[in-house]
Each structure stands twice: as structure tokens, then as C-alpha cells.
Design goal:
CATH architecture of the largest domain: 3-Layer(aba) Sandwich
Helix content: 40-55%
Largest sheet: 4 strands, parallel
Number of helices: 12
Number of domains: 2
Structural class: alpha/beta
CATH topology of the largest domain: Rossmann fold
CATH class of the largest domain: Alpha Beta
Order of helices and strands: HHEHEHEHEHHEHEHEHEHH
Number of strands: 8
Amino acid sequence: MRNEPGRLPRRAFLGLSAGALATGTAGCIGSASDDNDGDEYVAVASFFTFYDFARQIAQETSMTVENLIPAGLHGHGWDPDPSITRDIVDADAFVNVGPEFQPWADRALETVRDDGAGTRSINVREGIELIDLDETVDEEEAIQGGKDPHFWLDPELAKGAVDNIVEGLSAVAPEHEGTFGDNAADIKQRLDDLDADWEGIFERAARDNVFLAAHNAFGYVADRYDVNIQPLITNLAAADDVRTSDMQFAQDMIAEHDIRYIGAAIFEPNGWARQLVDETDAEAYYPVTPYAGVTEKWSREEWSYFDIARSINMPTFEIVLGSTAPEETTLEEEWRNFE
């Protein structure tokens, strides 16, 4: 980003004290790496999936994309320290999931506006039609009046997020618009390929009822591929309380449909999954994730949305759908009843 009057370079900003920020010094900040020879840009992202899309879109440009969510954490129910807001204020763009999904991100955007920072907000769900969420969702966590925000689990809808990211990054760095568009076209083709592979998995399924000891994050998968996916937690909160009636419903469903294997979310408490394996005829649980975060290992190996889909979610769904025996999938033994 080119130098603008009254703006500080990124490195100078990072050296500011919290007290300086509190007194309003940050109001003149919004550029990134202005002290470098060429135009360089920084975008930060509030959620792994869209960090991953953005970093792929920005390949072979002077745009750097940073993931704000530390490895091992779920991107939804997180409350970061003030340094994250400083990173957002100092960035050229903030890739986020839109209002009401991550309260901390909403607060950071308020700070950006209050400080007059130049950070561009890129709302990845802009213009995407969301499906209704269960009526059981708590009023305080409702998105757009009770919609399900997890649209990126539908590869077709995920392409809309890719387009939104391209538009936002192009507004920040118009000289790279062509490269952004070319990279996005490749991502969207990979999403089409992923969609076709998901179709194949559900077409080969031996059963059409899946139980997940997880929060309500897979509604778009159920909607797109016409399968009944029942979550243990019907609210959006990944660590919400599980009622006795919820566990009873789970036990009844497992018995009624003769479910042998269930899914359990990687970044959520799995004690409920262990309890169901102990107290029902279910033999084991296997990992699922709504692409909300990464493990330390995935981070080291630079796993993408596509890597996680093919290495974690797809093998588990093949197991829970009864189309593939656990030992015939690519899942390693560590994922059977993982801790």
C-alpha cells in the first residue's frame, strides 16, 4: 500500500504501546509495510477457511495473508487479547465471516471505524443466501434472524466467498486483480471437484442417517446431499451444555437406526462421544470438523481446506455412512476414539 499523509508504517505501529493506542494514536494507522521498496499488502482473516481461500487467491502477488486464529482453537467461540485488534487495525484488509458470527470480530471492526483506520472489511458471506437454522438456537446467537452461518461446508456456496474475497482484495491491490481472478478460478474448479467427490460418497452410502457428537455445523452438507445429519448440540455454540434429553435422543437414534459409528468434532469436548460409545451399541467415534481451525500438525504441514476435507471429513463420512470399513479408509488409528 502506498504511503499516505499521516500514516505510520506497519513496523512502527507494531512498536506502539497499548497506552498509545488507547489515547487515539491508532486513528492514523491503516497501512501495511509502507517502509518497503515496493507496494506490499497485508490481509488478516478471522476464520481458517477464509484465510486459506485468501492465501491461495493472493499467491504470486505482494499480498500477504495471515490467520488470526492460533492452531488448536475453534474460530467461532474465541475471545482474543487486544493484540489481535491491533493487527486488524494495522492491516490493509480484514477477511471476516460477517456480522454476528464472531463478536470479537464485530468489536474489532468498530475499533477500525472509530479510529478511522484504512482497513477494508471483506465480508465473505455478502450476498449468500443462508438456510434456516433449527428453532432451538438461542436468540443471542442467532445470525440474520435465525440463519445457519456454516455455508462454506457447501462447496457451491463456498465459491461465493471466493468471489467476495477477490473483490475485496482487488479493491485493496487493483494491480493484482488479474492474478487474484486466475487463482480464484482454480479454487472454484477444485470446489467443483470436491462437490463431485462428496456426491459420490453420499451416492455410495449404505445408510442415510448420521449422528455427530458435535454442535450444529453440518446443516449445509445435509441440505445439499439430502442426508439426515443429527447433531448432539442443536445450538451454534461448540461447547454448549448437553441436556439429559439430548443424550437420550442420541441413544434412541443410535438404537433405532442401528448406528455403529458416529462422528465427533475435533475442537469440541468429546466426552459425550465417549459416553455414547460406552452406553450404546455404537462401536467408535471418528473426527469431523467444520474447517474452523487447524491442529499444530496441520499447520506445520500447511493443510488447506481441501486437505482437511479429503483427509478428515470424507473418510469419516464414508465410515459413518456405512460405505467403507474404518480400516479401509485413509484415517490413521489415532483418530479412532481420539482424545
